[in-house]
Design brief:
Layout (H helix, E strand, L loop, with lengths): L1 H24 L4 E4 L2 E4 H23 L12 H22 L3 H5 L1 H28 L2
Antiparallel strand pairs: 1-2
Helix pairs in contact: 1-2, 1-5, 2-3, 2-5, 3-5
């Protein structure tokens, strides 16, 4: 069960970090998604959350010998996870609204994916998970 909760807990942590940071850095902005106005922090949080799921799956297939909780200790592993998360987040935002990357700034979206993934790895594996299920 402990490994299965990682596919829920870590992406939720990433989504909260990205959504929270977006609400502070870009308050009161909305993104038009298929005709619906979605608060930007919700859209960015969802995109980074999906990216985090893909990053966790990719990590388990590319680096099966490195526990997901230890990927920040391995530079190549953490770069891969951040890159997958950032790329997936950009892809999800583009799928929501093709003009979103241009209006938000591609670099900001990529940075949000990397930072949220690294922050979520630390917070989830060192603080949240031990409180939820023990070490």
């Amino acid at each position: 069960m402990s490994e299965n909760i990682d596919f829920i807990g870590k992406p939720l942590t990433s989504a909260v970090i990205a959504g929270g940071a977006t609400s502070v850095l870009m308050p009161n902005k909305v993104l038009n998604v298929y005709g619906y106005k979605v608060p930007l922090p919700v859209a960015v949080g969802a995109a980074v959350g999906v990216g985090s799921i893909l990053a966790e799956v990719a990590h388990q297939h590319i680096f099966p010998n490195i526990h997901v909780g230890n990927k920040l200790e391995q530079p190549l592993s953490s770069l891969m996870a951040g890159g997958v998360n950032a790329g997936a987040a950009a892809g999800v935002l583009y799928a929501m609204n093709p003009g979103s990357l241009e209006s938000l700034g591609f670099g900001k979206v990529i940075a949000a994916g990397f930072i949220a993934d690294a922050g979520a790895d630390y917070i989830y594996y060192n603080l949240a998970k031990p409180m939820l299920v023990g070490k």
